Amino acid sequence: MIDKLFPSPEAALADMPNGATVMIGGFGNAGMPAALIDALIAHGARDLTIVNNNAGNGDTGLAALLKAKRVKKILCSFPRQADSWHFDSLYRSGELELELVPQGTLAERIRAAGAGVGAFYTPTAFGTKLAEGKETRRIGDRDYVLEFPIHADYALIKADRADRWGNLTYRKSARNFAPIMAMAAKCTVVQVRETVALGELDAEQVHTPGIFVKRMVRVAAPMKKVA
Amino acid sequence: MKKLDRKQIAARLARDIPEGAYVNLGIGLPTLVADYLPKGREVILHSENGILGVGPKPAPGEEDEDLINAGKEPVTLLTGGCYFHHADSFGMIRGRHLDFAVLGAFQVSVAGDLANWHTGGADDIPAVGGAMDLAVGAKKVLVMMEHLTKKGESKIVERCSYPLTGARCVNRIYTDLAVIDVKADGLHVIETVEGLSFEELQRLTGVPLKRLASAA
Questions:
Q1: CA angle at residue B11 from B57 to B214, to 5 degrees?
Q2: CB A45 within 8 A of CB A70
Q3: Contact A105 B84 (CB under 8 A)
Q4: Cα B69-B149-B178 angle, rounded to 5 deg
Q5: CB B86 within 8 A of CB A176
Q6: Do B87 and A225 touch (CB under 8 A)?
Q7: Cβ pair A12, A215 in contact under 8 A
Q8: Number of H helices, E strands in chain A
Q9: Residue B51 lies in a domain
Q10: Could you say which DSSP state residue A227 is in?
Q11: What is the model's pLDDT at position B213?
Q12: Least CA distance to B68: which residue of chain A?
């Protein structure tokens, strides 16, 4: 019988090696798998490469992982926030490498990895600093920049509901990067609010098919208000 | 001359968004446009993080941490709105499905180059977000900004000195002084604020402007 549910976030991340590339879902706090990030911090793996839209804010979650100095490189589109002080100081001191990627290119590079696409041409960033040194090509009447996929060892994402096969649904704008990150990683670990019996998710409404999911942990998070 | 305040620039721009348009409002100043879309005109707002049909701010106490806009502020969803993942969201942008992107700017050049993501300062933390995708992807890029810097220098320039967000991508500029179209043959002044002559606008702007017959 297939059952992808693990007993705890710690158990689900136990085999995380040093130097792993880890995608972390979420856009700001929406969809951020906080319990999995806490387990990653507790685990102690270091020299990580992190892929996330942001670079953490406040003192918890991804910001706490950065503060613990477990991250050598981060790929993101928007590190600067009013409260991104941990990223800011590590970046300025040169302790953290940043690869800044336009948000749509970040999403498509992740999608390409999951979909088996070797590389793609995008018009985004042509003629800007972020395309410097990259191969370009004129196709029709537009100029494009060649971009390569981002593969990951792990993706840590958050979902709303799941069955034991790993079929997932998300809630509102917490979906964001989760479906494509789930596809792009060798081992996708899901923090899910509620698990249901097989057949209880409407097959027409499954957002991420279970084939993209390896492990799940149930974390019944209470609804929190936005500060 | 009667300079427009930020809300008035937003209201002026909102007048030009037609019924049925799909629009992305950049974070910061452009978000104000949502407040001035005429009631009864159906305009569908897109948010990069996977929303079509973004509604107004929720009432206090009604915020939902799973429902935020690209600026990470709590929002609501209009009836008929929907959610989707990031690759689809940027497919909408890059695939030329959005009618308008409204963006703030540090500088816009005569050729329509846009600089709005980075000052290029050594200590400045770069953050681009979705700006480069919006700049090349939307059918029309509308820029909303103050005409002059705090030092009184024109933000409409011959050549951007800040790093570019996109080359030749801006279609129209709305400032506190004027509305200006960016065309292949240069900048066309569509209108100026009350009490501001074309000649005075030309003097303040520095780069060559063309006068439309209807402009003051």
A1: 165
A2: yes
A3: no
A4: 80
A5: yes
A6: no
A7: yes
A8: 6, 11
A9: yes
A10: -
A11: 60
A12: A173
- Maximum distance among all alpha carbons in chain A? 55
Residue A109: in which H helix or E strand, if any?
A: helix A103-115
As a three-state string, the secondary structure of B170-188 is CCEEECCCEEEEEECCEEE
As given in the structure block, the two tokens for residue A226 are 């936005």
Tokens of A214: 């390896």
Q: Cβ of A104 under 8 Å from any chain B Cβ? A: yes
Query: Domain with B154 in it: what CATH number?
Result: 3.40.1080.10
Q: Which of A10, A91, A15 has its CA nearest to residue A54?
A: A91
Cα nearest neighbour of A171 on chain B: B66
Q: Which residues of B touch A84 (CB under 8 A)?
A: 125
Quick one: DSSP state of residue B168? Answer: S
Name the closest residue on chain B to residue A93, using Cα atoms.
B123
B48 is catalytic: yes
A196 in reach of chain B (CB within 8 A):
no
Dump pLDDT digits (tens) for B166-183. Answer: 999 999 999 999 999 999
- Which chain B residues are Cβ-neighbours of A105 within 8 angstroms? 132-133
Q: By the CB < 8 Å criterion, does B67 face chain A? A: yes
The distance of B90 to chain A (nearest Cα, Å) reads 5
CB contact at 8 A, A18 and A44:
no
Arithmetic mean of pLDDT, A20-32 = 96
What share of chain B in percent tops pLDDT 70?
98
Q: What is the pLDDT of residue A75?
A: 98
- The answer to whether A176 faces chain B, any CB pair under 8 Å, is yes
B98 touches chain A (CB under 8 A): no
Count of domains in chain B? Answer: 1
What is the distance between the alpha carbons of residues A68 and B30, in angstroms, rounded to a whole number? 37
Strand partners, A169: A161
Please choose, from the candidates B124, B136, B170, B182, the residue with its C-alpha nearest in 3D space to the C-alpha of residue A131.
Answer: B136
Domain A9-118+150-218 - what CATH class? alpha beta
CB within 8 A of A58, min separation 6: which ones?
A: A83
The confidence score (pLDDT) of residue B197 equals 96
Residue A96 near residue A73 (C-beta atoms within 8 A): yes
Provide the residue range defining the domain that includes B124. 6-211
Inter-chain CB proximity A102 and B77 less than 8 Å: no
Q: Which two tokens stand for residue B186?
A: 């240069």
CB contact under 8 A, A123 and B94: yes
